[in-house]
Amino acid sequence: MPVLTSAVTKGFELPTVSKKFRLEDFKRGDEKTIHTDYEAAAREGLPAPVAIGPQVAALTFRQLRLCFGEHWLTGGKWNLTFRRPVLVTDFCVARGVVTQTEKLTDSVRIYCDVWIENQKGEKVIAGTASGLIPL
Amino acid sequence: MSETPSRVLEDSQGPRASFDDIKIGQSLGEMEWQITDDLIDLQCQLDQDFDPLYCLPGASGKRLAPPQITYRPPRWLFSRTYNVRGLFVGWEMESIAPITSGMTLRVSAVITEKFIKNNREFVVYQAEGKSADGTLLFRSKRTHVLDFVERTAPRRGAGIDSGIKPEKI
After folding, report:
1. Which of B7, B68, B153 has its CB closest to that of A61?
2. Any domain includes B53
3. Chain A closest-CA separation from residue B72 CA (Å)
4. Measured between alpha carbons, how far is A56 from B71 in angstroms, rounded to an integer?
5. Which of A45, A73, A82, B132 sees the fewest Cβ atoms within 10 Å?
6. Is residue A45 part of a domain?
7. A85 CB within 8 Å of a chain B CB
8. For B104-126, what is the mean pLDDT?
């Protein structure tokens, strides 16, 4: 059952989804990548291995799947900016809020601001998302 | 004394593509991509999302794939054309129709924009995926920064991570 209904209003806070990442989350076999290897990351000017962006954004996708249920798969949209690298051992939490609803013929498009914060409260990913809920 | 920052010049795949090498309008080609239960399982594992919506067969008897399963094919197409590492910094996506196990997707992409911001070089490419019968399933726009280090830093030395990976999620 989706969290959001067609009667939702602006300001509704989406459920949070969080995870403490580990370097092992980003390993693929023995590959040395900027996501798993300190030297590979350093050569690219990074302070330490960085998380794979889509795996961090997955917190937002889980949140939106919870909110829209199966309706997320038809008409779901997102626009995310990866604002700063997430280190592979960071804690991240996905947050979001409904900003607008738009009544269509047989559904309501619900617009949200979504973002992911690290353990310092910094927004590491931010953007918008929307999906359809039938009337 | 700290070393002067530099951008990687080359890696195991050869010289890194420069900002000038990348041409707006350049097709990144297309590829076929088979969606399987195993692939959906792997995506769910990566995302740590084991909801029945994705893990059990839907009304059609086939499993539904998370929309973000579409991340990698356009990135592979980018790397087939240009030797880049850099970082993924922007992701627009529209999920037009569900993607199910057993589908063969045809994914294509094209370079649409490049720009300089905060003294770094950015490239934008757009992709779309269609089913075997030509139904549009998703549209996506990606923004990629070529280097984490600013563009005024010289290029020198070899990178360990080429950014070109086996084409599997």
Report:
1. B68
2. no
3. 9
4. 13
5. B132
6. no
7. yes
8. 98
